[in-house]
Design brief:
The chain has 635 residues and is mainly β. The chain has nine helices and 29 strands. Strands 17-18-19-20-21-22-23-24-25-26-27-28-29 form a 13-stranded antiparallel sheet. The protein has a five-stranded mixed sheet with strand order 10-15-16-13-14. A four-stranded antiparallel sheet has the order 3-2-5-6, with no helix packed on it. A hairpin with a 2-residue loop joins strand 20 and strand 21.
Length: 635
């Protein structure tokens, strides 16, 4: 028995010794993509510092234990571990290492992988925008991005919302971010001339959210500095949908819903009995719920039809939209009719021509707000329930009412805003040499607003003036041109460079007219030509311009260490002659820890980045020609 155990022990030691022997190993390393030999590949015995490097023919030779494991590595290729298992010939085929750089997003005048951005940004994609009952640009952003707050200025359908990024940045100047659609700054703001207590007419409500593919929100100075003097409040980049080069998609979507005022938000007012008890009166037969008389269940609907198509040369996107929203206060509503066409066509292999056109017509019905004497809400809150809405003959009761009859204001006052907006752009992109791209883009944004108000003598305000009529018109246009040259280069598959330089200009124009008249013959004549007296009239004109030079340099090493330098110079007619140009530099750095070897063993973390940035941005939301002493006339 002892003899048998001894023989087994000796046999095991012999086998182990044989397996640990060093044997010559050789082979060839080739690339999977082109089947060519790969020189410079490191071949290392795992767990040791011993190894070899492939020669110009992709071959290698080394001595390795028969039970060893060889590790093959090369920059930009997937490393491989291959057991020797006593073999003397080991050939290896190496695959390229595909770095997951995430989604590509628009950043300023170019695009970039989201993971390679060293500034602070947020993105909102198409899926996050779908199935929302609010169908205005600023409305759909509510609660979608960190650091971005959207507050309603009023509950008016189509009314303006206040957007702020990381709080306000100015006391006297604008706090609204710059809005850029398909690379072009667009007209934003309130251009209404008939003030209705915060119920502003938002120029952005004319843009259809169903046409949007994504939002990119630039927050910190490094990300926004490329827009210079208009970037201190942040920048919202909107990319509209393009055609599908693979197949034709036809999409029809429709929705219908209702809006109501929450019961807890409706004030509980005294009824007639409570009023009589409180005032010591004894009025019988009438118990009017004035809030119920002016509020309603408000329907809203949205219908969208779009076609996306294309082939290897042409992409086409066409859409049409009808959106209607009634307000919870009677006689308030917003109706929008819009259409868009986007087309891209490859004229040559390296030459692409593209264009986009959108057209919108909207109608906005408003009533005076809660900060005026003649608003339906403040009057409904103030009227005692003991007074009726109508006289026995059907006319509006005015008798002993302490305030204006809110139902008369709702039904008889007309305040309608009609908007026509057309936006178009055309661009040409040319790729040449090795890594150069030149893009020229031209755009026109034209906004026309007409406001019509008429208060007949059947309302308290109209009776005061024997009929009151107001007409206001506003024309705004913004012409933008930009030329951008970009260069992209990768050296040795580890050093990645991007350089961009550009020039742009903008020409902005605004024209307004306003006329107010009184003494109308009767309620059937509601336009100024029928008025007996002109109370006020004015007309204004404004032209301004901006010229800009900008550039950006980006560098990253193995998608791990990322540097960005940005600079812009803005010359604006808003600035004084002795300080015509503003200069806005920025720099940022980011370190992607997930690309480090020590993070590869933490699969639960898909992307971890440390970044820091510094920059200077401006706010040109100031009055035009404020630096000049202007003459003013009036009476």
């Amino acid at each position: 028995m002892r003899k048998t155990n001894f023989l087994l022990l000796m046999f095991s030691l012999f086998i182990s010794s044989l397996w640990a022997q060093t044997i010559p190993v050789s082979g060839t390393v080739t690339s999977a993509s082109d089947k060519m030999p790969m020189p410079g590949v490191t071949v290392q015995i795992k767990g040791t510092q011993k190894g070899s490097i492939t020669d110009i023919n992709g071959t290698y030779k080394l001595d390795a234990p028969a039970n060893a494991t060889l590790v093959f590595s090369f920059v930009g290729m997937k490393f491989q571990e291959v057991p020797v298992e006593g073999r003397k010939q080991i050939d290896v085929i190496m695959d390229e290492e595909r770095v997951d750089l995430g989604e590509v997003v628009v950043v300023g005048y170019s695009t970039s992988s989201k993971k390679l951005i060293s500034g602070s940004i947020s993105t909102v994609n198409e899926k996050e925008l779908g199935n929302l009952p609010i169908r205005t640009i600023d409305g759909v952003l509510q609660g979608k991005a960190a650091g971005v707050s959207v507050n309603q200025n009023s509950g008016t359908p189509g009314g303006r919302n206040a957007i702020k990024m990381r709080g306000g940045s100015s006391i006297n100047a604008s706090n609204q971010p710059l809005i850029v659609v398909d690379g072009v700054p667009v007209i934003t703001g309130n251009f209404g001339q008939i003030g209705y207590s915060g119920q502003e007419i938002d120029a952005m409500s004319d843009l259809n959210p169903d046409d949007i593919e994504s939002f990119t929100i630039l927050k910190d100075a490094s990300a926004t500095a490329i827009y210079g003097s208009r970037a201190s409040n942040g920048v919202i980049l909107i990319t509209t949908k393009k055609g599908n080069a693979q197949r034709t998609n036809v999409n029809l979507s429709t929705s219908y819903g209702w809006q109501t005022m929450p019961a807890e938000r409706i004030p509980h007012l005294m009824n007639a009995a409570q009023w009589n008890e409180f005032k010591g009166t004894d009025v019988q037969g009438t118990d009017t719920d004035w809030m119920k008389e002016i509020l309603q269940v408000a329907p809203t609907s949205n219908t969208e039809l779009s076609v996306s198509s294309g082939n290897d040369k042409t992409r086409l996107y066409i859409s049409g939209n009808l959106y209607t929203q009634d307000g919870t206060v009677k006689s308030t509503a917003f109706n929008r009719y819009s259409g868009r066409v986007n087309v891209d066509h490859k004229l040559l292999k390296d030459l692409t021509l593209g264009a986009g056109v959108s057209m919108t017509y909207s109608v906005n019905h408003r009533v005076e707000g809660d900060q005026t004497t003649y608003g339906p809400l403040p009057n409904a809150l103030s009227e005692p329930a003991i007074y009726p809405v109508y006289n026995p003959d059907g006319t509006y009761y005015e008798g002993n009412l302490p305030y204006a009859n809110p139902v008369a204001i709702i039904n008889e006052t007309k305040n309608v805003a009609y908007t026509n907006r057309n936006n178009g752009n055309i661009y040409l992109e040319y790729k040449f040499l090795d890594g150069f791209t030149f893009t020229t883009k031209w755009s026109a944004d034209v906004y026309n607003l007409r406001e019509h108000e008429y208060d007949p003598i059947t309302t308290a305000q109209g009776k005061k003036y024997n009929g009151l009529g107001i007409e206001g018109t506003t024309y705004v246009s913004n012409l933008v041109g930009s030329n951008v040259l970009q260069y992209v280069k990768t050296v040795n598959k580890v050093h990645n460079f991007e350089a961009m330089a550009g020039f742009s200009f903008e020409k902005y124009a605004r024209r307004t007219t306003y006329i107010e008249a009184r003494d109308f013959p009767n309620e059937d004549f509601q336009y100024i030509t029928s008025a007996g007296t002109i109370r006020a009239a004015s007309a204004t004109a404004l032209d301004r311009g901006m010229t800009s030079y900008f550039g950006q340099f980006k560098y990253n090493y193995m998608y791990k260490y990322i540097f960005t330098l940005t600079a812009r110079a803005d010359g604006s007619s808003k600035f004084g002659s002795n300080n015509r140009f503003g200069y806005f530099p920025a720099a940022s750095f980011a370190w992607r820890l997930t690309e480090e070897p020590f993070m590869k063993s933490v699969p639960v973390i898909s992307d971890l980045k440390i970044r820091t940035s510094f920059g200077l941005t401006g706010n040109d939301g100031i009055d035009d020609f404020a630096s000049l002493g202007l003459y003013k006339g009036g009476y």
